[in-house]
Design brief:
Helix 1 runs parallel beside helix 12, helix 2 packs across helix 3 and helix 3 crosses helix 9. This protein has a single domain, classed as Alpha/Beta hydrolase fold, catalytic domain (Rossmann fold). The protein has 305 residues and is α/β, with parallel strands linked by helices. Strand 3, helix 1 and strand 4 form a beta-alpha-beta unit. The protein has an 8-stranded mixed β-sheet, sandwiched between helices. The protein has 12 helices and 8 strands.
Length: 305
Amino acid sequence: MTLLYDYPFTSRWFTTRGGLSQHYLDEGTGAPVLFVHGNPSWSYLWRRPIVALRDHFRCVAPDHIGMGLSDKPGPDRHPHTLASRIDDLDALTTHLISERGAPERGWTLVLHDWGGPIGIAWALRHPHRVARLIICNTAAFPNPYGPRVRPGLRLPLWTLLRTPLGPSLFLRHNVFARGATWRPLGVRRRMPARARAAFLAPYDRPEHRIAIQRFVQDIPLRPGDPAWPVLRTVDQGLAQFADRPMLIAWGLRDPVFDLAFLREWRRRFPAAHLLTLRGAGHYLLEDAHEEVVPAMRRFLGAGQT
């Protein structure tokens, strides 16, 4: 892949037990900050906070298997499920602690989209590691609307995915990843062409888009969905992090993770620091990085004694 716009990092690779190469960034030194992305983004989403924080923190940002610069296996080599992504994150962080000098404790989790349940599930396995959390338009509990999708999203996403047209839209035409870079689905202000191209670069052909499709198919909406037990475990364990400092940074124009999700976070963590961004959508770090990144630095105490 050619050099990516505004991505001045050294790529690193971790070989999974299945022999797959997982790409990750490991920038800076100090207390570790673990950035966990969702779908259909990748570590490119975190480029600005990593640049801003790596002078005081060790910033770790993996790409899930099948996404970003990681290997893109078919379902015969990787299940592309919520449970498998948690296992992948656990294996990588264990490697960093045991082989690359990362500390056992003092980790800050930064979570976006379906990085929320992945990251919190990892934290529930190792609660002693987690010092702080930064929550960005995500969830770690069942859909506040119940076993349904918001009406405006049913047709373009879940309904079409389950029709014969779904595979063509996701795999051949890449509509999900493309749509996330356009107004009003993913952003509220126009994304520069070079940034949009970088978000889409890893998903340049149908066989590289399987994980995006499987990510959506695996979303647990009701009991009986394969990932539902994992999400319920995350939901039930979330309260144990109520004593950790938390920053909630939220784009208020997100069509998926909307005010109902924000209210649920606020109900569970009323002491959390809150930054609401009226002009920001789902990719809040694209719409409002000028506000979000400094807020992250202040919350983490970067440069302060």
